[in-house]
Amino acid sequence: MNTLVFDIETIPDIEGGRRIYELGDLDPEGIAKAMFHLRFQKTGSEFLAHHLHRIVAISVTFRGRNDEFKVWSLGDEQASEKELIQRFFDGIEKYSPTLVSWNGGGFDLPVLHYRAMLHKISAPRYWDLGEDDSSFKYNNYISRYHLRHTDLMDLLALYTGRANAPLDELATIMGFPGKMGMDGSKVWEAYQAGKLPDIRHYCETDVLNTWLVYLRFQLMRGQMGLAKYNAECDLVRKYLKASGKEHLIAFEKAWLLDADGH
């Protein structure tokens, strides 16, 4: 089974904010400040509503057949938001992978839905509820309780926000690196400073943490034994060491060994 872990990084949708709030010729920084201020007045938090986010990075890990494992960010640094989203849904169309996320049902996927509509992107395989493939009637990407998309945060908390755990903290207590370089609250600042490569690298470490937590989950639920789990971890370590990429090598070095050397 092909498995795709995904995560997105976003900034304020400046043009959307300009239109909605009639902010005229205000510069992007001023529009973002206005959007944050208005949101805080309404909710007590500056975190914007889903439809007011623009995607600047989508990172994934892919586990295929024959020991195929890799992690990367979709598109290149010059790719448009439309291209990033198109590549994401094209991957689903081609591979029909099991999707894995951390809070993907609560944030990433709704944002992807709104932005895909904005850019007139078609994603028939993703939206299939059994009309085209009968097997999707009972296991599709849309249902909260199906595993074709596994939102680990939601599932592990038994679908109650009262028990949600932060990925960074859960990964850290398991010996995984947790967040490296920045966190989501710093993405807009980093983007303004021209640090899109750093944002993409940060996003890649997030999907790596999610994949490692997912492996531990699969071990817990009996979908793999300890030997298979250790082999999967070794596969990831081998890939990171051979990547030649500084942030991935740093991730592997920060990943603590278990008592049995894994």
Detailed description of the structure:
The chain contains 11 helices and 5 strands, in the order βααββαβααβαααααα. The protein has helices at residues 14-20, 28-43, 81-95, 104-118, 124-127, 152-156, 167-173, 187-192, 196-220, 226-242, 246-254; strands spanning 3-12, 53-63, 69-73, 98-101, 149-151. Strands 3-2-1-4-5 form a 5-stranded mixed beta sheet, sandwiched between helices.
Label this structure with key terms.
single chain, 262 residues, alpha/beta, Nucleotidyltransferase, domain 5, five-stranded mixed beta sheet, 11 helices, 13% strand, globular
Number of helices: 11
CATH class type:
Alpha Beta
Radius of gyration: 19 Å
Going across the biggest sheet, name each strand in turn: 3-2-1-4-5
Instruction: Note the overall shape.
Output: globular
Regions with little confidence, pLDDT below 50 for 5+ residues: none
Spell the H/E element sequence.
EHHEEHEHHEHHHHHH
Strand content: 5-15%
Residue share in helices? Answer: 40-55%
- The CATH homologous superfamily is named Ribonuclease H-like superfamily/Ribonuclease H
Main sheet properties: 5 strands, mixed
Give the secondary structure arrangement, pairings included:
Elements: E1 3-12, H1 14-20, H2 28-43, E2 53-63, E3 69-73, H3 81-95, E4 98-101, H4 104-118, H5 124-127, E5 149-151, H6 152-156, H7 167-173, H8 187-192, H9 196-220, H10 226-242, H11 246-254
